[in-house]
Amino acid sequence: MKQQDFVLPAAIADVFALLPPAPHSVLLAAGLNRVLGRRIRSECLLPLQDKSVCIQVTDARLAFFLGADRRGFVARRFCQTPDLTIGACARDFLRLALREEDPDTLFFGRRLYMEGDTELGLLIKNILDSVETSQLFIMRFLPDTLRAKVRAELLS
Q1: If DSSP codes are grouped into helix, strand and coil, which group holds residue 154?
Q2: CB 101 within 8 A of CB 18
Q3: How far apart are the first and last CA of the chain?
Q4: CATH tag, 8-155
Q5: In whole angstroms, what is the distance from residue 73 CA to residue 71 CA?
Q6: Cα–Cα distance for residue pair 22/86, rounded to 1 Å
Q7: H or E element at residue 17
Q8: Whole-prediction pTM value?
Q9: What is the sign of the dihedral through the CA atoms of 23, 26, 32 and 35?
Q10: Longest Cα pair distance anywhere in the chain, in angstroms?
Q11: Which pLDDT tens digit goes with each residue over 72-127?
């Protein structure tokens, strides 16, 4: 199976599509703050303060709405026209988080899309790129055997 053909099972996507965006947006904001927390200087997030960014996981039919305040990432309410929308399938977002793929490669390969304020998108990319890879992903806390199994299942 080619990686761009990966899609979550329809039954899972159908369940996710029924969820309102607020709960999982709150969870994602809390997760980002937990994982990235002190690794991102608060002044770097200031341009996101009055903005709404939508992260769409296309195969899961999930949309997360985020912004930032002086304490870190925050969930935003559903917005018909967010300032920026970034979308990709779950596998490609995982590959980004694991630093297995470069965002530019995914973007120019048409597997990652960005709509709206592209300058804001570049700012977010630069913020995430400034975080040391070894500090970025929570999988580092998993035992080696489980981490290898997750990588093999999700990225093969």
Answers
A1: helix
A2: no
A3: 8
A4: 3.30.1050.10
A5: 7
A6: 17
A7: helix 10-18
A8: 0.74
A9: negative
A10: 43
A11: 999 998 888 999 999 999 888 888 877 778 888 888 888 889 999 989 988 888 87
